[in-house]
Amino acid sequence: MVYLNAVKKSFKQGPHKTLPVLRNINFHAPRGKTTALIGPSGAGKSTMLRCINLLEIPDEGALRVAGKEIRFDKNEKYPPLGKSHFIRQKEILDLRRHTGMVFQNFQLFPHKTVLENIMEGPVLVKKESPREARAFALALLEKVEMSEKKDSYPSTLSGGQQQRVAIARALGMRPDVLLFDEPTSALDPELEREVLKVIRTLVEENNTMIIVTHNLLFAREVADFIAFLDDGEVATYGTPAEIFGRAMPKRVTDFIAAMSPEDYTI
Ligand code: ADP
Ligand code: MG
């Protein structure tokens, strides 16, 4: 469903310095499966996710989402989004429409109610009728157990509730792939649990998902595949049994040991 082929991305750090963040990413997230992305802080996990929905434009390599492919060339100039006369921008927006993103800090629209947050994209971007969008939004709120709060504003909700709404909002766009960037990192354990419960339901429904997480227990439990990102490369990829097994490179076992409660110390 999602392929990254030799994707590279650097950031400018002043006039003469560039920081290579994604050195050479080769990655595949299969349809209907959940892939967890783990690795140390600064490894490039967020940047990789942002490249998949083109919030960041890779310098080089190719990206394929839901059968649509874009190739990148560092010599190509990308005008800012919104200048619709560039065909390239349309290509980017088209591809982005196949993805739904859930951020660590929720990023709901503060001046819209829960229901309006979910309906906004389908109505404005996908041109669904308000009636249709509303019906789907209500069904999604039921799925994330937030029906009672449909007319509330985000600021009146707990972090866990906001994140569940954010998940419903992402689903509202009927994406082919859901991207989660540390969806529970800002939450207390109790609130984390209610969000993980929703994500678990999505896993069971065979959605295609890529989840950046520091919760290795959760990754081990729900992911079909785990990619270990280190220093801008997918250093290791495998099933949870393989990743948590003993035959992994030392940097993987060290990372797991450092990140984990006692029961995951290898
Ligand atoms: P992770 O999510 O694995 O912690 P990130 O992808 O957020 O890692 O960041 C990887 C590196 O890229 C970090 O050193 C970070 O400072 C740098 N970086 C990320 N985004 C930008 C940006 N927009 N501009 C400059 N540097 C960035
Ligand atoms: Mg990150």
Radius of gyration based on Cα positions: 19 Å
The number of helices is 9
N-end to C-end Cα span: 32 Å
Largest sheet: 6 strands, mixed
Beta strands, count: 10
Sequence of strands across the biggest β-sheet = 6-7-8-3-9-10
Instruction: Give the overall average pLDDT.
Output: 90
Give the structural class.
Answer: alpha/beta
Hetero groups in this structure are:
adenosine-5'-diphosphate, magnesium ion
Q: What is the beta-strand fraction? A: 15-25%
Helix content: 25-40%
* Unreliable sequence segments: 81-86
SSE succession = EEEHEEHEHHHEHEHEEHH
- What is the global morphology? globular
Q: Explain this structure to me?
A:
The chain is of the alpha/beta class and 266 residues long. 35% of the residues lie in helices and 24% in strands. The protein contains 9 helices and 10 strands. A 6-stranded mixed beta sheet has the order 6-7-8-3-9-10, with helices on both faces. Strands 2-1-4-5 form a 4-stranded antiparallel beta sheet, covered by helices on one side. A hairpin with a 5-residue loop joins strand 1 and strand 2. Helix 3 packs across helix 4. About 2% of the residues have low confidence. Magnesium ion binds next to helix 1. The site of adenosine-5'-diphosphate has 11 residues, from strand 2 and helix 1.
